[in-house]
Structures are given as C-alpha cells and as structure tokens.
Amino acid sequence: MFAAIPVTVNAPDHGFCRDCLALQSGETRRCGQCGSPRIARHPELYRLQLAHIDCDAFYAAVEKRDNPALKDKPVIIGGGKRGVVSTACYIARIKGVRSAMPMFKALEACPEAVVIPPDMEKYVRVGREVRAMMQALTPLVEPLSIDEAFLDLSGTERLHGRPPALVLAGFARDVEREIGITVSAGLSYCKFLAKVASDFRKPRGFSVIGEAEAVGFLAEQPVTLIWGVGKAFAATLERDGIRMIGQLQRLDRAELMRRYGSMGDRLYHLSRGQDERVVHPDRDAKSVSAETTFDTDLASPADLVPVLRALSEKVSARLKKSGLAGRTVVLKLKTQDFKLRTRNRQLGDPTRLADRIFQTGLHLLRKETDGTKYRLLGIGVSDLTGSDRADPPDLVDAGARKRALAEGAIDSLREKFGRTAVETGYTFGRGRKTLPPDPPEPDED
Where is this site: Substrate discrimination (predicted)? Predict the structure, then answer.
C-alpha cells in the first residue's frame, strides 16, 4: 500500500543512523560512522512526539529467538488443523499466510511451514519485558495488546538528553539487542497516523508522518486505512462511489454525517489527519473472555456444555486474579461454514463467579443447540467493574450463597493443589482438553 509513496528527505543535518544513532551531516545513503544504510530523515523528525510501537510477528519472533534452527523457516503459531493462525512469520506471509486464517488454508498456502502451538505464558513474559522498557522511556504508555502500545514522549527530551525520534530509535535497537526480537515504530503528531506509520515498512520499520504532509498523504490512501472501515462498511462506501480517502476530503462534515451518522464524523476528521485522542496509560480492559476451536465440529449439548463449563471457569479465574467483575455475559459461536453468532445477556449485578457465568451462558447456548454444528465456542463478560460490587446476596435464589461458598472452597483447593485437583460433574472424566488451564496474567486480556 505504501510502496508508491515517495520518501521526503529533510535538510542534510536532520538525519541520524538508526543503528548507531550518529547524526548525519550530509545526504549520504549510508552512515558515515558505521556504514549502515538505515538513515532516518524527515523535515519534522525532531518535532514529533507521539509514537506507536508494534512487535514484528511477535509470537513467531519469540519462537525463532528461542530456537535458532527456525530462523530461515516459515513458522505459523496456531492451533491444530481445525484452528486458526495466531501469528505467521514474514517468510510464511510471503506465501500468503495471514493472521486469523483457518489453519487448513494456511497449510495449503505454505505446506512446508513449521506449526507451533501458542505458549501464552512465555509471550506474556516477553511482552512484559518489552513494556518495562517502554515505561523506562515515559510514564505515558497505553498498551493496545500484548505486543503493541502508544507512547507519548513529549517532555522527555530533558530526561533522556535526546529528542523523541532518537529515543524511539534507541528503544528499537535496545529491544533487538537485549530481548532478541524486533519492533517497528511509527512517529507522528496523533495516534491515528502514528499507528499507520508503524505499519509502513515492517519488519524493523521506523517511519514518520508529519503534520504538513498528512492531508496529501491520506488523500492517496484507500478508505480501509481508517479505523472502523472494515469490509462491510468499505462496500457501503464503494456503492456510494467512495474508494479513496481523498474523496472523503472533498465532502463536508454535514454531508458525511447525513449519510453515515456518527461514523461520518469520524470519517471527516480522520480523513484530514485530525485525531485529538491522548495517550491513556491506564486503559481499562473492556472484556474478559476465553474460547476454543474444536478438532471436529460439535452439535450435541452433551459435547458443548462441558466445554462451556471449562471456559466459564477460565474466565472466572481471570476475573478473580484481576480483581474484576462483569455485568454482561457474552456467548460466541462459529458455525462450520465460519458464520459467527454472538448472544448476550445483562445481569442484575456484576459477577465473577464461574457458576453464574456458566448458568447464564448455558441459557443462551440452549437456544442455539438446534442441530447446527459449531467449530468454535467462547464465553466472556463485559461491562467490567471492580470485584467489590460483585455477586451480592440473592434474596430470590436461596441456593446462590451455597454455590458461591462451594466455588470459593474449590478455588482454595485448586490454588493449593493445582487447577486439575477438583472438577465439577460437567467436566469430570472428559479428558484434560476439557479442563480449564491455569489462568493467564491479566495483561493478556
């Protein structure tokens, strides 16, 4: 998408080497100190302060770091043949493998790929190492996921003795040297364009989008570059003759809002590079969920209900570990032809109890067990709040308190003897794949 965009070169004394960080006094293509061709130049290079960091093919990069024999091989991180791709390395991506692609399609595109089941505990640990390095640069770090975040570097020049651009390049270099994976960085004046810039030249990218060039740059991009414009909405815009952001720039705000409502307001501002959102370091999780893809399609309640129970226990464990509770229970199902069904029910009070999550999910599931075969089942809670407001005494359901006490006793036994020490009747004898695994750390959510 960005291949045809010319690189703007600034005044000769503005550049620096991304490998040794030496300032460049001329327009040479290689660093005068270390010979590296990775020179950063831009007219606004030293005025911009908002960054987006994204680890390159994170899960696959960690596995390649830990197993050097995989260095030159296509690697796919994901489930079995019935699962989906979590991450593919860049060698596999060249062959057409993409994240969220069904595994059987990924192996058709790249049959020689090495498939590795995800090791979330390891990825969370490495992700925390990267985040700790981010937080050493600035307290204004807003994580988006385990492997990406926004950073506001304004006001840090006096602390580090370098402008934000050099601090960012130094961070990328240090992550590669100390942790053994690579990152791509985008630098701009707003969140939207910092995120766009970080996707510019992956892997090991370092790209800058300045304020002076923003409108012209965006005019040449497809509308799908804008957050919230997915396939369905892009099709709506195309029916209206709009494919490029430049076409949006020629429409006034009132017209866009008349056509597309609140989304029209977003189109108006982002198409012009206007994004007033600030970096929030304490971005709250919006939901906590767990899901699984089956090895074979399942339709029978006898097969689905034990899985629902195990996943409910996993969600409950995450909530309790994070000190959270949720008011809305959400059931997720994917049919054998990849059609997604989501059903939800709002509770009177927030909950963090596995039993209550399960019983609510069971009520929703029963309406969907009509013979349809499913390849995926998930359960989660949203509308999160603190656990101090969770599960007050139920005056209607006399057995609710007993079930809550029993669950507390089970939690205590599992904490002492392991997650598989105590099972409910729903999961007993169903095999280890049905049992809830140890809960991941809250950051994973």
Answer: 59
| CA atoms 332, 337, 339, 344: torsion sign | negative
| Catalytic sites, residue numbers | 148
Q: What is the CATH number of the domain that holds 178?
A: 3.30.70.270
Measured CA distances, 186 to 38, 74, 114, 284 (Å): 15, 26, 30, 23
Cβ atoms < 10 Å from Cβ of 205: 20
Question: Known binder of ligand: residue 147?
Answer: yes
- Residue 13 marked as a ligand binder: no
In a domain, 167, yes or no: yes
CA 203, 209, 215 angle in degrees (round to 5)?
A: 130
Q: For residue 382, what are the contacts with CB-CB under 8 A and spacing of at least 6?
A: 286, 287, 326, 327, 328, 330, 344
- The reply to whether 328 and 430 lie within a common domain is yes
Q: How many domains does the chain have?
A: 3
The model carries a pTM of 0.71
Residue at 278 is within a domain: no
- Which range marks the domain in which residue 297 is found? 287-444
Q: Give residue-wise pLDDT tens across range 225-266.
A: 998 888 888 999 999 999 999 999 999 999 999 999 888 999
CA distance 333 to 313: 18
Q: Place 222 in a pLDDT band, splitting at 50, 70 and 90.
A: very high
At residue 243's C-alpha, the angle toward residues 3 and 202, to 5°, is 25
Q: Which residues of 60-87 are buried (b: 16+ CB within 10 A; e: fewer)?
A: bbbbbeeeeebeeebbbbbbeeebbbbb
Residues 298 and 267 both lie in one domain: no
CB 203 within 8 A of CB 56: yes
Residues 70 and 170 in one domain: yes
Non-local CB neighbours of 424 within 8 Å, separated by 6+ positions: 309, 410
Please indicate, yes or no, whether residues 253 and 378 belong to a single structural domain of this protein: no
Query: How deeply is 367 buried, as exposed, middle or buried, from its count of CB atoms within 10 A (0-12, 13-18, 19+)?
Result: exposed
Are residue 201 and residue 307 in the same domain, yes or no? Answer: no
Rg (CA), the chain: 25
- Residue 233, domain CATH: 1.10.150.20
Rounded CA-CA distance 96/205 in Å is: 21
Strand partners, 211: none
Instruction: Tell me if 436 sits within 8 A of 420, measured CB to CB.
Output: no
* Residue 279 within any structural domain of the chain: no
Is the residue at 103 inside a domain? yes
